[in-house]
Structures are given as C-alpha cells and as structure tokens.
C-alpha cells in the first residue's frame, strides 16, 4: 500500500487544485479538507480509502456531488454510469487490483478489443487519468460515477473475493 501513497497524495492535490480553479470549492474549504485528509492518512491503516472528494462531499459538505458530475458531463462530455448496473467480465475481475481502484476511485468495467472503459469519481484529477492511461495498453473511454457507486462496487468485489478465498480454503 505504501507504493500507492504518492499516487493518492498527488491525485488528491491535483483534484483539489482543479476544484478551486473551476470555482467548485473555495481555497479555505480546500485547506480544511486537506488538513482532514492528512489527519486521516496518518491515522488510518487503509489509506487508499481516504479521499479528498469524500471529505468535501460527505464530511465538510462544501461540494455538491451532483454539481460536480454536471460540470464533468457538460465540460468534458463524459457519460454517467452506475456500476451496480454493470456485469463485469471475468477477465477484468481476475486482474482487478482493488488497491489501485480505491486509491484513484476508478474502476475498469469493460474491455473490448483495444478499448478500455473506466468509471471514475476522480476525472478532474490529471494524476488519476495519467495513472490509468499509462497503465492500460490501448484506448480509454472515461465515464463519471458517484463515490457511492464506486465504493459499493469495490466493497462488494472484496466481499466476493473473500468468500471465494474461504470457500477455496475449505
């Protein structure tokens, strides 16, 4: 997990800068959220699950997720997706690295020929886009998703993997 910490910090820092740049949050709100992010990063064992976006939307309530998604759809022409409506191919499930998904709040949900389809809550973070575009060989089609949709998918995926591991051990 330690190898993801620089990615987490950079992703959140660049997201915060973009949110301020685009007038979605104030610099004071960003400073408060960053302080809380650093506090959580130093006290939680699962640092990949800590996100500036969650802090701003859920804790500080200084950002409305609906407004953020509307801005992403309008300005960046992304579609919206709810991951609970997706049937994930076995090939993706077999290679999914949950820690990377948590760290970037991004999930690859389909792969057709040379094109990957990714759902993300962190589209406005250039570090997240660069990470996945460098990691994936081929074209990337981005979709916006809520934090809740991505979190629920990842929690469900982890639960199923744990059950499968227990069943395999018996």
Give the key terms.
single chain, 170 residues, alpha/beta, GMP Synthetase, Chain A, domain 3, 2 domains, 4-stranded mixed beta sheet, 4 strands, 12% strand, globular
Summarize the structure.
By secondary structure, the chain is of the alpha/beta class.
What does this structure look like?
The protein folds into 2 domains: 2-63; 79-169, Type II secretion system, protein E, N-terminal domain (GMP Synthetase, Chain A, domain 3, 2-Layer Sandwich). Helix content is 59%, strand content 12%. The chain has helices spanning 5-21, 27-43, 52-59, 65-76, 90-95, 98-104, 126-135, 147-169, and strands at 79-80, 106-112, 115-120, 139-144. The protein is globular, with a radius of gyration of 16 Å.
């Amino acid at each position: 997990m330690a190898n993801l910490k620089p990615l987490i910090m950079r992703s959140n820092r660049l997201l915060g800068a973009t949110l301020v740049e685009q007038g979605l949050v104030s610099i004071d709100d960003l400073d408060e959220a960053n302080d809380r992010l650093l506090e959580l990063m130093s006290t939680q064992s699962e640092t990949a699950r800590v996100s500036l976006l969650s802090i701003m939307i859920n804790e500080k309530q200084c950002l409305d997720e609906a407004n953020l998604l509307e801005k992403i759809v309008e300005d960046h022409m992304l579609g919206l997706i709810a991951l609970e409506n997706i049937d994930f191919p076995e090939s993706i499930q077999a290679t999914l690295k949950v820690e990377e998904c948590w760290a970037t709040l991004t999930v690859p949900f389909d792969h057709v020929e040379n094109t990957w389809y990714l759902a993300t809550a962190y589209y406005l973070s250039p570090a997240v886009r660069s990470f996945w575009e460098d990691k994936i060989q081929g074209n990337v089609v981005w979709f916006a998703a809520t934090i809740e949709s991505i979190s629920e998918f990842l929690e469900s995926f982890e639960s199923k993997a744990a059950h499968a591991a227990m069943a395999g051990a018996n």
